[in-house]
Amino acid sequence: MKATAKDLRYNLKNILESVGRGEEVLITNRGRVKARIISAEPKSDQTRKNPFVGIWKDRKDMQDVETYVRDIRKGRFA
Fold it and tell me: Model-level pTM?
């Protein structure tokens, strides 16, 4: 993600939320990159903290996503 110095001033909370999700933010000033903001925690630790990551990994009916979506849409189309 790129943000200007002005964006950083006015949207700091949103930029920090992006960094918290694991995004890297490049701060530009007059079109040139001046800084890079990265998370202090490694990316692998961030995914383990979210309890919803991998919530359906053990579901046998969702192993083939295309088949699963096709099956749930069968009733909608004639």
Answer: 0.52
- The residue assigned the tokens 């925690």 is 41
Residue in 56, 45, 55, 57 with CA at minimum distance from that of residue 21: 45
Tens of pLDDT, residues 4-14: 999 999 999 99
Q: How far does the chain reach from its first CA to its final CA, in angstroms?
A: 43
Structural domains in the chain, CATH included, are 2-72 (3.40.1620.10)
Question: Both tokens of residue 10?
Answer: 């006015």
75 contact partners, CB below 8 Å, separation of at least 6? none
Helix (H) or strand (E) holding 20: helix 12-20
Question: What residue has token string 């995004």?
Answer: 23
Distance CA 43, CA 39 (A): 8
